[in-house]
Design a protein that fits this description.
Blueprint lengths: L3 E2 L31 H8 E2 L1 H10 L8 H24 L23
């Protein structure tokens, strides 16, 4: 299973304020007016079911069924992207026993 993280601010390629970056998890990220930290954190975590509902409610897919699009298009493309990214850096990962590291992948998903 997977979860997405949604920014509390709309993405803009012209945004220069680092506190409004769409791909940041910085603790100093400014929240929308009147929004609690708890609500913002809850709203930012998006399950596949919630993402399908958001896509449906915001009519982001032009009539395409969101659950099917997520399952048949989005997840396979994301897996392919993650695989290609890992292949690009695999030589830099440590093979030492006992070495442990956590990696994440941020992906900006636009309307296309």
């Amino acid at each position: 299973d997977w979860f997405a993280r949604r920014s509390p601010h709309p993405y803009s390629p012209r945004e220069t304020d680092p506190d409004r970056g769409a791909l940041t998890a910085a603790p100093h990220l400014k929240l929308p007016d009147g929004e609690s930290i708890e609500k913002s954190l809850h709203d930012a975590q998006v399950s596949p079911k919630r993402m399908a509902a958001i896509l449906q409610n915001e009519n982001r897919l032009g009539g395409v069924a969101p659950a099917a699009w997520l399952r048949n298009t989005f997840v396979p493309r994301l897996k392919h992207l993650a695989s290609r990214t890992l292949q690009a850096v695999i030589d830099g990962l440590s093979p030492e026993a006992g070495y442990y590291a956590v990696y994440g992948l941020d992906v900006l998903v636009d309307a296309e």
